[in-house]
């Protein structure tokens, strides 16, 4: 037996954003139709609380694939070459259990997470959306700028970060990379109030977006907070939005913003309207009118990783990319 080892550069060359958006639609449909087995993510914190290890095993029916993503999260790495997220996706043959590939996970996570937000925005955001705000200045912020521009013809792109100097530098870098003018907002409120689509991609433990800033017709992709103790949006924002998730068992266990709103009595359990896969499939209403505020709570699900990793693996085999190691 041999394993195919694929690096971050390999992943980026084999997984174009536009193709990944289509793959994420497939992953959402798989999850909503029962075609994915996805235990709720488990993990541990390091004794010094500087970081943690997350484990996401799963199985998808089409293509049949067994796998697991193992990722570390060390927020202190932000701004360094390491990045806050590191790890690997391990792929196995579903029928025999044979390990077939080890794929760098930081690149897969960056692309598939932003592609998922784009796929959902294409369904939930207003068709006439022209202004995008991305809160954050890391890998996910960069990926979201690229991905969202593929599903709406945004005329205005704005970023915001807690460090104004870093936000301006990030905006300049991304403007050069994407060939688009990207401005840095002076405040989160300014970014949010001027946007039709808002993506929060930060490591904030407490809300950076207030419901009082929102207006009719906006769509939010809430991406950065992924554990119950954190929330990027306040209770009012949760309560006023049509609230959708990627995978309901994970969202009920891990979505800190929803748990806070539920504990405060601001929403009931049925405020979580369903999974976006059911919206894409036409079984659950998404946006019901131009005045709706829609919200996608993205926690990530292993079906996304496995669908993306299987595609990367197939492309690598067809194009002779990667390194083979005897196993």
CATH architecture title of the largest domain: 3-Layer(aba) Sandwich
User: How many helices?
Assistant: 11
What general form does the structure show?
globular
Report the span from N to C terminus.
5 Å
Would you tell me which CATH topology of the largest domain applies?
Rossmann fold
Sketch the topology as an H/E string, one letter per element: EHHEEEEEEHEHEHEHEEHEHHEHEHE
Percent in helix: 25-40%
Unreliable spans = none
Mean pLDDT: 96
The main sheet comes to: 8 strands, mixed
The CATH homologous superfamily of the largest domain is termed NAD(P)-binding Rossmann-like Domain
Would you state the CATH class of the largest domain?
Answer: Alpha Beta
Structural class: alpha/beta
Note the beta-strand portion: 25-35%
Quantity of strands, as a count: 16
Kindly provide the radius of gyration, computed on alpha-carbon positions and rounded to a whole number of angstroms.
19 Å
The overall number of domains is 2
Overview in brief:
36% of the residues lie in helices and 25% in strands.
Could you explain the architecture of this structure?
The structure is a single chain. The chain is 36% helix and 25% strand. It contains 11 helices and 16 strands. It has helices at 8-14, 17-32, 105-124, 139-148, 164-178, 188-193, 235-240, 248-254, 256-263, 276-280, 302-319, and strands spanning 2-6, 36-37, 42-45, 52-61, 64-73, 85-93, 99-104, 131-135, 156-160, 182-184, 197-200, 219-222, 242-245, 272-275, 294-297, 323-326. The strands form 2 sheets. Strands 1, 2, 3, 4, 5, 6, 7 and 16 form an 8-stranded mixed sheet that branches. Strands 10-9-8-11-12-15-13-14 form an 8-stranded parallel sheet. Strand 9 (156-160), helix 5 (164-178) and strand 10 form a beta-alpha-beta unit. Helix 1 packs parallel to helix 3 and helix 2 crosses helix 11. It is globular. The termini are close together.
């Amino acid at each position: 037996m041999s394993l195919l080892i694929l690096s971050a550069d390999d992943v980026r060359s084999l997984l174009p954003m536009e193709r990944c958006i289509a793959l994420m639609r497939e992953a959402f449909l798989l999850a909503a139709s029962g075609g994915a087995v996805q235990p709720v993510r488990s993990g541990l914190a390091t004794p010094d609380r500087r970081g943690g290890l997350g484990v996401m095993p799963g199985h998808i029916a089409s293509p049949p694939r067994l796998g697991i993503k193992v990722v570390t999260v060390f927020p202190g790495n932000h701004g360094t070459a390491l990045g806050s997220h590191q790890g690997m996706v391990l792929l196995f043959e579903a029928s025999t259990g044979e390990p077939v590939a080890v794929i760098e996970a930081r690149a897969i996570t960056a692309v598939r997470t932003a592609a998922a937000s784009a796929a959902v925005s294409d369904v939930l955001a207003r068709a006439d959306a022209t202004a995008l705000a991305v809160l954050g200045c890391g890998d996910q912020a960069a990926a979201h700028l690229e991905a969202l521009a593929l599903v709406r013809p945004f005329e205005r792109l704005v970023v915001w970060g807690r460090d104004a100097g870093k936000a301006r530098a990030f905006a300049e870098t991304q403007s050069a990379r994407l060939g688009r003018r990207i401005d840095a907002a002076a405040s989160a409120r300014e970014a949010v109030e001027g946007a039709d689509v808002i993506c929060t991609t930060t490591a904030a433990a407490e809300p950076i977006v207030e419901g009082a800033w929102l207006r009719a017709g906006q769509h939010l992709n809430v991406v950065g907070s992924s554990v119950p103790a954190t929330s990027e949006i306040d209770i009012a924002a949760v309560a006023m939005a049509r609230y959708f998730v990627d995978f309901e068992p994970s969202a009920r266990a891990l979505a800190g913003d929803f748990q806070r709103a539920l504990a405060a009595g601001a929403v009931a359990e049925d405020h979580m309207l369903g999974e976006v896969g059911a919206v894409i499939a036409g079984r659950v209403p998404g946006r019901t009118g131009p005045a709706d505020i829609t919200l996608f709570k993205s926690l990530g699900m292993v079906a996304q990783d496995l669908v993306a990793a299987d595609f990367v693996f197939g492309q690598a085999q067809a194009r002779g990319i990667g390194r083979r190691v005897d196993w």
